[in-house]
Every structure is written in C-alpha cells, then in structure tokens.
C-alpha cells in the first residue's frame, strides 16, 4: 500500500459523510513512523484502531512533545485512556490528525503483543470506571491539605514559642520536612488530575500547592513526570533513569551493554556506596534550581509569582528567628532532608525493577515490569503518599489514591491469570533492594568492562 504522507494525508482523511472510505494501514507501515529512520521525521500512532499523523502536532501537544512521541509508531490506546479526563473533547481536536484506520485484517494492537491480556486489561479499565474508582473524594483531599498546612504552621510555631535551641530546632525541622514531603504527594495527586473532575481546577490548585507551598514549577513537574508514566524504566524515554550512565549503571541489560562498550563515567562497582552522597542529597536542591530556570525559560509569570510567595513567606516567618544566614541555611537543610526522604521513597519502586530500552510491550506488562508495591499499612500509606500502591498508580494514573486498595485485588487477579508477577515487599526491604540492585548492576558492569 502506498501510504499517505504529511499534510496531504491529513487533508484526505476519512470523510464518511461525503461517501469516502477510510485509508487502511498495516501495523508494519505504522511501525515505520517513529520519527526516526525512513521516512524521516514522520510520526504516526493508533488510538482505538484509528491512525493519526502527529508529525506536525507533537510539538504542540499540551501534555508535552516527548510524551506523545514516545508512542510514535505504536498503539497508544491505553495511555490515551489513562491520561485524559475528557476523552470526547480530546477526540474532537484530534479528528483533523486522523489519516485513516487499521486495515480490516489487522488486530487492534500490534501482533507482537498478547491480545488476550490487552483485552482483559481494557475490560478491567471499563470495570474500574463503572465502579466509580476514578471519582475523587474531595473531603479526603481537603483533610490532606489541612494536615499539611497544620504541619507547616506547627513547624514555625515551635521555633517562635520555644526558641531556637537544639530541641525546638530539631522538632521544627522534622515537622517542616514532613510537611514538604506530604505537599509533594498532594501536588502529585493534582498533577495526575485525580483530585478534581475538572482539568482546570486540578491545574489551578496544583500551581498553588507546588509553587506556593513548595517553590517549584507545576508545569515542569507535569511534563517531566508524564514521560515517566508513559514509558517507565525505558531508557531514553523515562527521564527518571536519565542518571544512567552519567551517575549510575542501571539495570542488568544496560549495565552489561555499558561494560561491553568499555564506557566508564563513574566507578559503578561502588555505586551502592556513593548513592548515599549523590541522589538523596541533591535531587530536590537541583529540582529547585532547574525549576526556576524552567519558569523563566517558558515565561510562566503566574508560576513565578506563586513561587516568589513561597520564598517571601519563608523569609518573613523565619528570618526574625534565625537571621539571614540562618534562614538560608535552614531552607537548604529542609531541601536536603526532603530530598533524602523523596529519593528513598520514590526509587524503591523502580530502581530494583527491570530497566531496558523500549520494547513496545502492552500497557499492563510495561507497568508491571517497571514497578513494585510496598506492603499496605496505615503508616506506609501515609509516609509514601499511597505510592506504596505503585502498581495500581501506574496502571491507573488518574485514580484517586484513596481507591488504590479497592482495585488492588482485581489487578492481582489479572496478574495471576496471565502469569505475571505482582511484587509487594516490606518498606525496609524495598529500601535495601535499591542498594542491592545497584550493587548487582555495578558488578555486572565491571565484569563486562574487564572481560567482555
């Protein structure tokens, strides 16, 4: 079949009302349109058997160019369902991008994927929607915000009332670190559009929590984090593993490949030791600096205003108690402590899991091989912002966190049916697995480097 290309394809798309038949494409043809190779720069994807040419659109995609591009040449039906609230409205704007449909003899997903698993997960998604598990409980999230604000005020009150001696200072530091950590989880909920049924309200409150309560860019976080969810632990597509190979050798496959190529940017065989003084100490301070750069680069003046109120508020409350030098040091200390907490909690679900290039697996398998859970308890739920249910969160990123425990048995059942491992572990075991996986991949790199 001679495929349509570029703008002409968009102009000659299906016009059923005028009696035209849709152009038909095979998965082989679609698989060539990844933005790489031949034909150069074309990007197509499939949603519900409809073929879309995003070559001219992907840079204008509201969710970010890299997110949508990561599915170029592939079936994007499941991520489309996962990420969008008002799918009808989105489809209306997508209609101009449609260039045809899959040929009648083509399956609804790539032949390399497990058709039964894909169908079963889509049935599960329909069940989840029917059970109302994507509907938020606003009172639950109000209580979360309230407890964050109370921790924030308590952190200041302890220093103001009891003075700045060691014990009050330590108590205040703990309270404010927890407040920042919990605010991070709430902004995560808002960024995933899981707090309100309206995209607009999620975005507005997200700016308040992320920029005013934390001093970071909400838009930067959303663009960055969406890439992670689209292709978790896929090298070159998931920015959360971009520290490979500059800082760490991650995953068995990539580590061996790095060693075979005789590349050594760090002493990776010691990475389980230097992990303590790299990522946990640097992540949030680096985020803070890059976030400000991003705001100025994108000219996000409203986010800049919110971010300035964070720093102004912090200085107004703590400068009279600690002085200029003290308040700057205190701000840095809180950033570093939150960074330690954030890194250990966020990485225990992913670093120990399978890391590789994108092999275009189905949505369910992609998420399950890249994520694991931490055993459920009230403390683990609270400490991790319910991200101890990382598997459920990745399968249904818009699901409000208070419903993860309800869908977990259904996910386990689907895993059992298809022989897919559902990993859940104690919290401390998860922390230990970070170091064990880094040690293992470092040793694999060294062996390949010396003997490969």
Concise structural overview:
This protein has 452 residues and is mostly helical.
Tertiary shape: globular
Main pleated-sheet profile: 4 strands, mixed
Task: Count every helix, treating DSSP H or I runs of 4 or more residues as helices.
Answer: 19
Average residue pLDDT: 93
Count of domain modules: 2
Q: Which secondary-structure class do the elements indicate?
A: mainly alpha
The total beta strand count reads 6
Can you give a write-up of this model?
The protein has 452 residues and is mainly alpha-helical. The protein has 2 domains: 24-112, Cytochrome b5-like heme/steroid binding domain (Flavocytochrome B2, Chain A, domain 1, Roll); 114-451, no CATH class. It is 59% helix and 4% strand. The protein has 19 helices and 6 strands. The strands form 2 sheets. It has a 4-stranded mixed β-sheet. Strand 2 and strand 3 (50-53) form a beta hairpin. Helix 7 (138-162) runs antiparallel to helix 8 (166-191) and helix 11 (252-260) runs parallel beside helix 19 (427-451). It is globular and about 75 Å long. This is Cytochrome b5 heme-binding domain-containing protein. Pathway: Lipid metabolism; polyunsaturated fatty acid biosynthesis. Residues 22-103 form the Cytochrome b5 heme-binding domain.
């Amino acid at each position: 079949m001679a495929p349509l290309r570029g703008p002409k394809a968009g102009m000659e798309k299906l016009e059923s009302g005028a009696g035209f038949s849709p152009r038909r494409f095979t998965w082989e043809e679609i698989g060539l349109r990844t933005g790489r190779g031949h034909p150069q720069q074309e990007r197509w994807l499939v949603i519900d058997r409809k073929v879309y040419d995003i070559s001219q659109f992907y840079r204008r995609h509201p969710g970010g160019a890299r997110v949508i591009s990561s599915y170029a040449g592939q079936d994007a039906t499941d991520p489309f369902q996962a990420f969008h609230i008002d799918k009808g409205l989105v489809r209306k704007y997508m209609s101009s991008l449609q260039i045809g449909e899959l040929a009648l003899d083509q399956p609804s997903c790539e032949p390399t994927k497990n058709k039964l698993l894909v169908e079963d997960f889509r049935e599960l998604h329909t069940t989840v929607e029917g059970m109302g598990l994507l509907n938020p409980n606003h009172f639950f999230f109000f209580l979360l915000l309230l407890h964050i604000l109370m921790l924030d005020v308590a952190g200041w009150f302890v220093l103001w009332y009891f003075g700045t001696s060691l014990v009050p200072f330590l108590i205040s530091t703990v309270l404010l670190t927890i407040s920042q950590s919990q605010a991070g989880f709430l902004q995560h909920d808002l960024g995933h559009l899981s707090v309100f049924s309206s995209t607009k309200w999620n975005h507005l409150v997200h700016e308040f929590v992320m920029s005013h309560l934390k001093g970071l860019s909400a838009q930067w976080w959303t663009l960055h984090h969406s890439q992670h969810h689209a292709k978790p632990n896929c090298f070159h597509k998931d920015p959360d593993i971009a520290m490979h190979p500059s800082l760490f050798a991650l995953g068995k496959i990539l580590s061996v490949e790095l060693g075979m190529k005789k590349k050594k940017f760090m002493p990776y065989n010691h990475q389980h030791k230097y992990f303590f003084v790299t990522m946990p100490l640097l992540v949030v301070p680096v985020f803070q600096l890059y976030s400000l750069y991003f705001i100025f680069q994108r000219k996000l003046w409203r986010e800049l205003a919110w971010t300035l109120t964070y720093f102004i508020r912090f200085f107004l409350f703590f400068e009279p108690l600690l002085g200029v030098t003290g308040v700057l040091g205190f701000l840095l200390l809180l950033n570093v402590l939150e960074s330690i907490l954030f890194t250990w909690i966020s990485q225990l679900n992913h670093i120990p899991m399978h890391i590789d290039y994108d092999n275009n697996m189905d949505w369910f398998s992609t998420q399950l091989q890249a994520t694991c859970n931490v055993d459920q308890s009230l403390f683990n739920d609270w400490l991790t912002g319910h991200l101890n249910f990382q598997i459920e969160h990745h399968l249904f990123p818009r699901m409000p966190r208070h419903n993860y425990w309800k869908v977990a048995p259904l996910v386990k059942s689907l895993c059992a049916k298809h022989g897919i491992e559902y990993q859940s572990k104690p919290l401390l075991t998860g922390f230990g697995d970070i170091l064990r996986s880094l040690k293992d991949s470092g040793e694999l790199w060294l062996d390949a480097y010396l003997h490969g």
